[in-house]
């Protein structure tokens, strides 16, 4: 009997069994306590694009703090600090966009017009009666009236978005909703009227649905071409001062 008691005590004191018992107790304790896991997500910040990529500096001339890269074509170029005021920055972007669009249309018109008629672009309006039965005063008045109406509506819509897409603002249109801003972004109205080809979105069941990815790519492409067109027009003005045309300067 004493031998059996001694054997049982020896077995209980066996280090192997003690280790297993300790592991079992630890497992029970671990099951009783909830396991808290921490998930750390590391996101790399997208760096601002610079108009001088090879030169890094904190100077406002190189890296202006008021330009965060959110605007299409924003490469941090604002040496005069015109965009320090957010309200002015919005207005300057609108002005750049509108002037760039006019410049793109003008550059195309200058090349096509001269290639078709042979008349230099700066002489095209010298004799209005030669191409249309209107006097210069009538032509100028009509231009000012029509352009003044369009520009006044754009001016009002800039300060009060979507105010011009109602029936009373477009009395000649029975579908005023076609002139509403379908993208929600100033300068990019989209919709069936301003995007008839569906380049920046799709029309389903008569409703225009903008595509964010397409719009981002088109915005960047447009502002790049707009800036090139404005520079081209500046060069055309210098050439016109010397009596030259773009095609003439190219020897064509």
Automatic annotation (TrEMBL):
<feature type="binding site">
    <location>
        <position position="222"/>
    </location>
    <ligand>
        <name>chlorophyll a</name>
    </ligand>
</feature>
<feature type="binding site">
    <location>
        <position position="227"/>
    </location>
    <ligand>
        <name>chlorophyll a</name>
    </ligand>
</feature>
<keyword id="KW-0812">Transmembrane</keyword>
<keyword id="KW-0793">Thylakoid</keyword>
<protein>
    <recommendedName>
        <fullName>Chlorophyll a-b binding protein, chloroplastic</fullName>
    </recommendedName>
</protein>
<dbReference type="Pfam" id="PF00504">
    <property type="entry name" value="Chloroa_b-bind"/>
</dbReference>
<keyword id="KW-0472">Membrane</keyword>
<dbReference type="GO" id="GO:0009765">
    <property type="term" value="P:photosynthesis, light harvesting"/>
</dbReference>
<dbReference type="InterPro" id="IPR022796">
    <property type="entry name" value="Chloroa_b-bind"/>
</dbReference>
<keyword id="KW-0604">Photosystem II</keyword>
<comment type="function">
    <text>The light-harvesting complex (LHC) functions as a light receptor, it captures and delivers excitation energy to photosystems with which it is closely associated.</text>
</comment>
<dbReference type="GO" id="GO:0009523">
    <property type="term" value="C:photosystem II"/>
</dbReference>
<keyword id="KW-0157">Chromophore</keyword>
<feature type="binding site">
    <location>
        <position position="99"/>
    </location>
    <ligand>
        <name>chlorophyll a</name>
    </ligand>
</feature>
<dbReference type="InterPro" id="IPR001344">
    <property type="entry name" value="Chloro_AB-bd_pln"/>
</dbReference>
<keyword id="KW-0602">Photosynthesis</keyword>
<keyword id="KW-0809">Transit peptide</keyword>
<comment type="similarity">
    <text>Belongs to the light-harvesting chlorophyll a/b-binding (LHC) protein family.</text>
</comment>
<keyword id="KW-0934">Plastid</keyword>
<dbReference type="GO" id="GO:0016168">
    <property type="term" value="F:chlorophyll binding"/>
</dbReference>
<feature type="binding site">
    <location>
        <position position="96"/>
    </location>
    <ligand>
        <name>chlorophyll a</name>
    </ligand>
</feature>
<comment type="similarity">
    <text>Belongs to the ELIP/psbS family.</text>
</comment>
<comment type="subunit">
    <text>The LHC complex consists of chlorophyll a-b binding proteins.</text>
</comment>
<feature type="binding site" description="axial binding residue">
    <location>
        <position position="101"/>
    </location>
    <ligand>
        <name>chlorophyll b</name>
    </ligand>
</feature>
<dbReference type="GO" id="GO:0009522">
    <property type="term" value="C:photosystem I"/>
</dbReference>
<feature type="binding site">
    <location>
        <position position="127"/>
    </location>
    <ligand>
        <name>chlorophyll a</name>
    </ligand>
</feature>
<dbReference type="GO" id="GO:0009535">
    <property type="term" value="C:chloroplast thylakoid membrane"/>
</dbReference>
<keyword id="KW-0150">Chloroplast</keyword>
<keyword id="KW-0603">Photosystem I</keyword>
<keyword id="KW-1133">Transmembrane helix</keyword>
<keyword id="KW-0148">Chlorophyll</keyword>
């Amino acid at each position: 009997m004493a031998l059996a008691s001694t054997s049982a005590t020896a077995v209980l004191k066996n280090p192997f069994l003690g280790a297993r018992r300790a592991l079992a107790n630890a497992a029970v304790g671990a099951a009783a306590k909830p396991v808290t896991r921490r998930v750390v997500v590391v996101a790399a910040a997208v760096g601002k694009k610079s108009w001088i990529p090879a030169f890094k500096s904190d100077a406002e001339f190189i890296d202006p703090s008021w330009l965060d890269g959110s605007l299409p074509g924003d490469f941090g170029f604002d040496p005069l600090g015109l965009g320090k005021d957010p309200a002015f920055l919005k207005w300057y972007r609108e002005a750049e966009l509108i002037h760039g669009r006019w410049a793109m249309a003008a550059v195309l018109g200058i090349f096509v017009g001269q290639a078709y008629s042979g008349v230099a672009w700066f002489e095209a309006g010298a004799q209005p009666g030669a191409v249309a039965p209107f006097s210069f005063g009538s032509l100028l008045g009509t231009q000012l009236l029509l352009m003044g109406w369009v520009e006044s509506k754009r001016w009002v819509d800039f300060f009060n978005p979507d105010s011009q897409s109602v029936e009373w603002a477009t009395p000649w249109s029975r579908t005023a909703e076609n002139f509403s801003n379908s993208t929600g972004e100033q300068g990019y109205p989209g919709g069936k009227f301003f995007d008839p080809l569906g380049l920046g979105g799709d029309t389903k069941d008569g409703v225009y649905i903008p595509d964010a990815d397409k719009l981002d790519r088109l915005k960047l492409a447009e502002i790049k071409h707009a800036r090139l067109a404005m520079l081209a027009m500046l060069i055309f003005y210098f050439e016109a001062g010397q009596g030259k045309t773009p095609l003439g300067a190219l020897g064509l």
